[in-house]
Structures are given as C-alpha cells and as structure tokens.
Amino acid sequence: MNQNLKLEQLRTFRVVAEQGALAEAAAVLGRTPSALSMTLAQLEERLGAPLFETDRKNRLTRLGERVLDEAVRITDAFDRGAEAIARLTASAAGTVRIAAVPSAAVTLLPGLVAAFRGRHPGLRFEISDLDSAAVERMVRRDEADIGLATAGEATSRDSPLLLRDALGIAFRRGGAIERALQNGAAASWELLKAEPLIANPLAALVPHPVVAGAVVEARLMARNTTTLLALVREGLGATILPARALSEAGEGLGFVCPADPPATRALSLLRTPGRRLAPAAAEVWDLLLSQAEGCAPVPGGEKPQSR
C-alpha cells in the first residue's frame, strides 16, 4: 500500500462521507461529482481497500469508519493551523479573539476595548461570553487567543492569576433571604436554607456544609451568569456568584458575602500553551495584566507574569 496520502483526498472523503452522496458533496466542495469519484478511487487505491459499501456512497465500510475519524482529525488540525498562521502574519489591525466568563466580560473588557480603539482603530475584537469550562475548551482548541476563566488548582506562566472575587449569595429583593436579613439574621451561608439554591460550578468553591447540601438538593442548575441572574430575578431561588457579577445586574437583586467562612473565586488569564501570541493579541494580553493588577491583585499570591 502506498502511504503517500494527500490532504485533498482526505478532505474529499470526509465531505462525501458526511453528505452521503457525491452530488451533495460536489456542491459543498465546488467540484464535479466525477472529479470527486476519481479522487475517492485514488484514495481507495492507495489504501488498498474500499471505503464505501456501495457506489451510492451512503454507507461506510469498517475501514471507512476508521479512516473517517482520522480524516476529521487531520483536516480539522490543518484548518486550525492555517488559521493560526494567518493570524500570526496579520498586522496589529487584525482580529483578537477573547473568550471570557460574563463577570470579566462586563468589568474588564469594556475599558480594554475603549483603550484599543484610540491606538488601533482597525483592530477587530471577537468576544465570546461563556462559562469557565467553555472558555478553557476554546483556548485549548485554539478557537480563542485569550481566555478569562475561573482558575483551576494549577496555574502556570501561560495562565497567571489576575484577581480574586469574594463569593456571596445573590437573592431577589423582597424574598425570604432579604426578610431574614431584615429580621436580624447573620450574613451566613445558612441563609441558603431560606430559599432553593440555583446551583452553578462556583458553589463547589464554598467550604460550607449547607452549601454542599443545597447543591445535592438543587433542582435548577445553570452556568451562565446572565441566566443565573434571570432565574434569581424570577424568584426561582438564590445563587452563588462573585461580587463583581452583580455590578451590572440591575435593580431587584440583593447580594451578601458571608464570612463563615469567606469564599473567593480566582480569575486566570489563559492562552494556548506553547503558542506565541500575534502582536495585537500580545498587546491585549499585557494590557489585561496591567488592568487586573490595578483593579485587584491576588492577595498573598505571586505577581501575575507577562508574556
């Protein structure tokens, strides 16, 4: 078997397999069905075995299923690499992709974008508002240049800690928690006994048995800050969020930071390990570091590192 496979052959096979017919694949690729058929025949000749059960191309052989998995992996990797090269060769007036948790998107990014407008008016920002797990996935897959996410247990030079937020209870004004506070109840995590908890991953950062029990009993869970606040505003329960997440929450919501014990959320700045940032993204990275240091340095931690 000749192992000299070509990317064009693997891409053609992938599209035909996904479309299930030559005519549909030809429309996607902008080629004729006969040209695709010839490319597939060359690929099968190189592999020494058929990839489709019939000429209709709607059912794969066992080998075809395995080759499709590899074709998807290889073509996706090539496309990501080609996009990265294009970004690296772009000027400062390129595109910077940022994935951020909502609280960071609201409090850190507006000032950054405003600063860059004056210095680089042609710079384009693509900002994705996501939960921390999705932010980390986008950065790991090189779908975002820079990520702002809740820090994990491990940090590195490529993911410096920026700041810490106090965690607290967000509740609806006029609800059971506010009434308890008005009646003299302490600002404690015990307040979550008064209302159902709308769970989210930040609850795991609170070392209190009432919170742990409320998570187990929770009948609502959400990851996005906007969704969580909307659920609280609707009177469906209380939730746990960082203090800065309430800065743009609007009226109708209250917030209390218990101290039995205090709990914090650390925010990290992420980028793809081992990959150099393009000039524009590198400048954004440095400006985010300087903004974060000025807003709230990590208590007792090391100074965030630049690139």
Structure, described:
- The structure is a single chain.
- The protein is α/β, with parallel strands linked by helices and 307 residues long.
- The protein is built from 11 helices and 9 strands.
- It has helices at residues 7-19, 22-29, 33-47, 62-88, 102-107, 109-119, 132-140, 176-182, 209-217, 225-233, 279-295, and strands at residues 95-100, 124-129, 146-150, 161-172, 198-199, 220-221, 239-242, 253-256, 264-270.
- The strands form 2 sheets. Strands 1, 2, 3, 4, 7, 8 and 9 form a 7-stranded mixed beta sheet that branches.
- Strand 5, helix 9 and strand 6 (220-221) form a beta-alpha-beta unit.
- Helix 1 (7-19) crosses helix 3 and helix 1 (7-19) packs across helix 4 (62-88).
- The longest helix has 27 residues, at 62-88.
- The model is unreliable at 153-157 and 293-307 (pLDDT under 50).
Write a concise keyword list for the protein shown above.
307 residues; alpha/beta; seven-stranded mixed sheet; 11 helices; 43% helix; 16% strand
Radius of gyration: 26 Å
Secondary structure: number of strands? 9
Bin the helical content.
Answer: 40-55%
| Low-confidence region ranges | 153-157, 293-307
Overall 3D form: elongated
Series of H and E elements: HHHHEHHEHEEHEHEHEEEH
In terms of quaternary structure, the protein is single chain
How far apart the termini lie comes to: 47 Å
The overall pLDDT, averaged over residues, is: 84
Q: In percent terms, what proportion of residues is strand?
A: 15-25%
Structural class: alpha/beta
Number of helices: 11
Q: What summary fits the major beta sheet? A: 7 strands, mixed
